[in-house]
Amino acid sequence: MALLPVSEVFDRLLGDVEKLPAEDVPLAEADNRVLATALNGRRTQPPFDASAMDGYAVRAQDTDDPNTPLEIMGESAAGHRFNGRIETGQAVRILTGAPVPEGADTVLIQENTRRLGDREIVATEPAALGRNIRKAGLDFAEGDALLPAGRLLDAGALSLAAAANHPSLSVVRRPRVAIIATGDELVLPGSVPGPDQIIASNSYGVAAIARKAGATILDFGVVADDREKIAAVVAEARQTADVIVTLGGASVGDHDLVRPVLEAQGMRLDFWKIAMRPGKPLMFGRLGETRVLGLPGNPVASLVCSHLFLAPLVAKLGGRKHVADIRNAILTAPLRENDQRQDYIRASSEQRPDQLTVTPFGLQDSSMLNTLARADCLIIRPPFAPAADGGELVQIMMIR
Ligand SMILES: Nc1nc2c(c(=O)[nH]1)N[C@H]1C(S)=C(S)[C@@H](COP(=O)(O)OP(=O)(O)OC[C@H]3O[C@@H](n4cnc5c(N)ncnc54)[C@H](O)[C@@H]3O)O[C@H]1N2
Ligand code: MOO
């Protein structure tokens, strides 16, 4: 089977993805969720003409002559309005956020007044008509379009939704990603491994990438290389998962059972084996409504494929925008010519005063997590790229 080019992998994986259905969540739990439907104001804010300052509600023309005393008729505080109307020659003590009394057209700030005893003030400076008054609806009015569908609910959006009196919000359901690690050699961190065993590490990194893209993770732990056991876990996972991610068992060895087991369960294979390094044995298919992404077991292949493919898949299902952070950088060391597979080379970037540079790591074996953890980017080497010298420009994808 020919290896599928990376650009086609994106098309086949993402081409027909629709965002998941909506669900209602309490406002307090809506942080970092994606709004499913546009949000309108359910009230007008401020609901009345309100004072923007501590001072006195007056008629502007009464302040034209600074020596005219104004009689204080009462107080309007936030939450407790002054019930009454002021006439010429009168003022009401007013505090920030309080309703402006009828008859007043201006708020004179406290600093521009002088008190004469308990009952009177004079303006020390004339006030312009309408000063320090927030008109009703200054922020928004009932029925105004406030937030569009697809908006990520961040701090500003959440407080606006609250101010508009929405106690709950309709958000896109989080994609549920089931992760199934396969392999007789794997034991969980903290176990005592047998002589031929290693610690299962991939799930943790893959889960972190998926979660960052908006997923809820269903971790199915480690399953032995056994057809029945893998089939049983897949059958359980497909009940709830939008995406099943399998780890390992994707290649051509006698114990690489994932694809045959999934096909026996009815998976329609879309593609298997892609023109990429690391990540060649990547597999993608559909099991009913559930998408299945079979990641190669080599830890670096699992994580690089998750950055490249799982993150945008999860983001799109969850209604989020996902744009890979791709930049141009100057190579500090030479690179060999490339073969037919698009290469993603672990590297370290440095922002210098005048340019971004990138240094590839010498060893690129796809089992080496130590280099992956140190890498902040991957150099993208297109198929058949000629050898590159230090000083040449290359594309890099940031991974942290
Ligand atoms: N004859 C060929 N052999 C291999 C090919 C090939 O094309 N022809 N491809 C190689 C490539 S590329 C990769 S990548 C691996 C992928 O193989 P599998 O997906 O079948 O993965 P496994 O054989 O199960 O495991 C490979 C390696 O990774 C370790 N592993 C697996 N799962 C985990 C995990 N959850 N946490 C940590 N480490 C894990 C496993 O122990 C193996 O060492 O195949 C090449 N072979
Ligand atoms: O995916 Mo494999 O890691 O190309 O070595």
List the helices and strands and how they pair.
Blueprint: H1 6-14, E1 22-26, E2 39-40, E3 50-51, E4 55-58, E5 70-76, E6 90-94, E7 106-109, E8 113-116, E9 120-123, E10 133-134, E11 145-147, H2 155-163, E12 168-172, E13 176-182, E14 186-187, E15 198-199, H3 202-212, E16 216-223, H4 227-240, E17 243-247, H5 258-264, E18 268-272, E19 276-277, E20 283-287, E21 290-295, H6 299-317, E22 326-331, E23 342-351, E24 356-360, H7 369-374, E25 377-381, E26 393-398
Parallel strand pairs: 5-6, 13-16, 13-17, 14-15, 17-21, 19-23, 22-24
Antiparallel strand pairs: 1-12, 2-11, 3-10, 4-6, 4-7, 5-9, 8-9, 18-20, 20-21, 22-26, 23-24, 23-25, 25-26
Helix pairs in contact: 1-6, 3-6
The chain binds ligand LQZAQKY5 and molybdate ion (MOO).
Residues 181, 183, 185-186, 198, 200-203, 247-253, 256, 278, 280-281, 296-299, 301, 366 line the site of ligand LQZAQKY5.
What does this protein look like?
The structure is a single chain. With 400 residues, this protein is α/β, with parallel strands linked by helices. The chain has four domains: 6-20 and 174-317, MoaB/Mog-like domain (Molybdenum Cofactor Biosythetic Enzyme, Chain A, 3-Layer(aba) Sandwich), CATH 3.40.980; 22-45 and 139-172, Molybdopterin biosynthesis moea protein, domain 2, CATH 3.90.105; 50-134, Molybdopterin biosynthesis moea protein, domain 3 (Molybdopterin biosynthesis moeA protein, domain 3), CATH 2.170.190; 326-398, Beta-clip (Beta Barrel), CATH 2.40.340. The chain is built from seven helices and 26 strands. It has helices spanning 6-14, 155-163, 202-212, 227-240, 258-264, 299-317, 369-374; strands spanning 22-26, 39-40, 50-51, 55-58, 70-76, 90-94, 106-109, 113-116, 120-123, 133-134, 145-147, 168-172, 176-182, 186-187, 198-199, 216-223, 243-247, 268-272, 276-277, 283-287, 290-295, 326-331, 342-351, 356-360, 377-381, 393-398. The strands form seven sheets. Strands 7-4-6-5-9-8 form a six-stranded mixed β-sheet, with no helix packed on it. Strands 16-13-17-21-20-18 form a six-stranded mixed β-sheet, with helices on both faces. A five-stranded mixed β-barrel has the order 22-24-23-25-26. β23 and β24 (356-360) form a beta hairpin. α1 crosses α6 (299-317) and α3 (202-212) runs parallel beside α6 (299-317). The model has no long low-confidence stretch (mean pLDDT 97). The structure holds ligand LQZAQKY5 and molybdate ion (MOO).
